[in-house]
Amino acid sequence: MAVAPIPAPPHRILRATSRFQWPRGKRVALVFNLAYEGWSDGEAPGIGPMGNVLKPGYFDTNAASWARYGAVRGIQRLLRIANANGVTTSVMASGVLARDYPDAFRAIRDSGHEIVGHSWGMDVIHLYLDEAGERANIQRNLDAIQAACGVTPPGWISPRGTGSLISSALLAEAGFLWQGDCNDDDLPSITEFANGGRIVNLPLTMEINDLPHSNRYGNYPRAFVDHFADTMDATARADAQPFMLDVTAHAHVYGRPPGAAAIDAIMKAALARDDVLIATRREIAEYALSMSRDMFA
Description:
Blueprint: E1 11-15, E2 28-36, H1 61-85, E3 90-93, H2 95-100, H3 102-110, E4 114-117, H4 131-149, E5 155-156, H5 167-173, E6 178-179, E7 189-193, E8 198-201, E9 208-209, H6 210-216, H7 221-238, E10 243-250, H8 257-271, E11 276-278, H9 281-290
Parallel strand pairs: 2-3, 2-10, 2-11, 3-4, 5-6, 6-8, 9-10
Antiparallel strand pairs: 1-7, 7-8
Helix pairs in contact: 1-8, 3-4, 7-8
C-alpha cells in the first residue's frame, strides 16, 4: 500500500536575486566535500565495486569491505591531501563512524574541517521514517559526533541527498544552520517557517562527484580532473552569473591512491584560479545570512 506523503509545514523560500555576489567578486564558490560514510550494524551498500547485485537475503561481504576502506585508510589520506593544500573541507559524516572511529573525528576537528551530519548510517533514509523516527535519527547522529569530538555539526545532508517532506523543518527546529538536501538551485536560498525558524539551503551539486563518475559511469581518475577543468572553463565562457559547485570525494571511493591523486590535482587547479572562492558549507551559509535582504526575494 502506498504511503501518503506528510504535508510540509507552512514556509516560504527566499531565492538569491540578480544582485547576489560572492565576496571579492569571485564567480564560483567551490566546496570540497569529503563523504565519510558508514552503514548500520549488519548493513552494507546495496552494490559494491563489482557492479553486480547478489541474490536477495545474502550479506554482501565484498561491498561491506569496500565501504570500510573509507574508515580504515581513505579519510586519513584525503585529510592529508586537503591539509597539505591548505584546503578546508566539509566532511559529511555518518554517526556510526563517530561511534567506531572517534580518533578520525578528532583529527577532522583538529585540522579545522567542518563536520556535517549525515545520518546514523547510509541505510537510514529519512524518507522511510515517520516523524518520531526522523527526530531520533537526527539526535542519535548529533550525540555520536558530540561524544567522539565535542563538535555540534552546523549542517546536515541526508544519504542520497534525500530528506523527507519535513526534514528541513525538523533540522531548523534542532538548531541546524543549513541543510543540503536540495539541488534545485546553484546559489544559497533561505527557508523561513511560519513559527519563526529558518534554515539556509545549500545545493548539493552532482557534476563533480566521484561516486557516479567512477562507479556508475566507469570513468578513470584522470577524467575526473579533466571534467573539473572543462566544467570551470566552459561555464566561465557561457555565463557570467555566480554559482556554487561541489567537488565530492567519498573516502571509500576516491580515498584510494588513484582517486586521491585526482582530488589533489583538482585542489591545486582550484587554488590557481583567481575566480574561485574555496569555502566550507558553513562559511557559505553564514555569508548568505549576513547579506542585505535585497539579495534574496
